[in-house]
Amino acid sequence: MKTMKRFAARICALFVVLTVSLTALVPAAFAATKAQLPDLPSSQCVVDDANILSSSTKTAIENLNAQLTQQCEGAQIGVLTVDYTGSLSTEDYAVQAANTWGLGSSSKNNGVLILLVMQSQQYADGDYYLATGDGFRNTTLEKQASAIAQTMEDSFAAGDYDAAVTTCANNVASTIADLYGVTLSGTTGTVNNDNTDGYNNGNDYYEAPAASYQSPFLTLLAVVIVLNLSRIKRRSELFVLVLSGVIVKSMFDALVSFIKYIADPEDKLPTITMWLMGSLANVSYRDVLLCAAIEIPCLAVAMILRWKMNLLSLDQEEARSLGINVKKLRLAVILIATIMTAVTVSVCGIIGWIGLVIPHIARLLIGNDHRTLIPASVLMGSIYLLLIDTAARAATAGEVPLSILTAMVGAPFFAVILRKTSGGRE
């Protein structure tokens, strides 16, 4: 018993060290890529470091910003021109510049940056990018940012940077005005927008991949198929159950690959790819409420069944002798776990290893009693996800997908557990 406790303490210490080290070292690993930015005074909305814009263009942007600030809750458009971005991509440079400049209202975070680069890491003949503040997240402006930036292409290629900036700024201002339901004078937006409220699909809900909303139903279907396949021999032997899971996973992986194959590579495919890697970047309070409305009742049912779940560790005959319907209980537990997992995945994508690693740590710390194991796993999982998300947000100007970091910590940790416990060793 003492040996097991010492092993649990060592494992938990290793896990803490790995997590803390990742949180500390990942931002440091990207520190060298910090952009060398020009001075970005908050009192100015145009910084022409490359000296390519005329005074009339600067005045036009200032006038446009005066209207936006007054009518659109402090929204602002910033224009930055630079000669090069160093080792950074245009996107990373733009995001860092936007965060440093502090465009728009500090409480609304509704600033937009138009960046023109004369020579970038990717393109020797120059590049451009449009970065939007978090206040415009999940809106038409964010969704159409790439299309709006593309309106600069012809003028930029011809070296007419004044026309490029003016066209893009007018389109941005027009889209912002639509979001706030106002009309600006002197704007001539040209980007087609069929939405009337400025939000995806006519509402303010994040446009995640369409299949993600059907995730709970598809997951339940997968579980049903697995359980039926595992009973081909009229008994749920462990190896048959695992093999059935592999078969069904392969089938659904093929379906996902087909969806990615037919998806629009400019719009849908990047969204699907990011969702598959898992992220909390686009999760809103509405998503949290939706999850809570389903997760809390499921947790309540799990706590009601907690003492019966303890009996599942016994032999089936022993459990039956204590009045437990093992078949129905296992089905109920699988159903609860499936619903909770599916709802979470439908909102934030696939974030692996947390459900595999955290319960093992909780079990090593407090034992197998589900009366304390369930709430401990929930609490420890939440804290762990918060640490990983903090590391992901601090790593780069964007955000590293969470599944990458959870795998970096979870895989080595689980390998240690597997090695220590294999062959019946303590």
Can you give keywords for this protein?
4 strands; elongated; alpha/beta; 426 residues; 18 helices; single chain
Structure, described:
- The protein is α/β, with parallel strands linked by helices and 426 residues long.
- Helix 9 packs antiparallel against helix 15.
- The protein starts with a helix and ends in a 5-residue tail after the last helix.
- About 7% of the residues have low confidence.
Largest sheet: 4 strands, mixed
User: How many distinct beta strands?
Assistant: 4
> How big is the Rg?
27 Å
Structural class: alpha/beta
Q: What does the average pLDDT come to?
A: 80
Termini separation comes to 9 Å
Number of discrete helical segments? 18
Order of helices and strands: HEHEHEEHHHHHHHHHHHHHHH
Question: Segments where pLDDT lies below 50 for 5+ residues?
Answer: 28-33, 189-211
Shape: elongated
* Strand proportion: 5-15%
Into which percent range does the helicity of residues fall? 55-70%
Strand order, biggest sheet? 1-2-3-4
Provide the fold topology:
Elements: H1 2-29, E1 46-48, H2 55-71, E2 76-84, H3 90-101, E3 111-119, E4 127-132, H4 140-143, H5 145-150, H6 153-157, H7 161-180, H8 210-213, H9 215-229, H10 238-262, H11 268-277, H12 285-304, H13 306-310, H14 316-321, H15 326-348, H16 354-366, H17 370-395, H18 402-421
Parallel strand pairs: 1-2, 2-3
Antiparallel strand pairs: 3-4
Helix pairs in contact: 1-17, 1-18, 2-7, 9-10, 9-15, 12-15, 16-17
Outline:
With 426 residues, this protein is of the alpha/beta class.
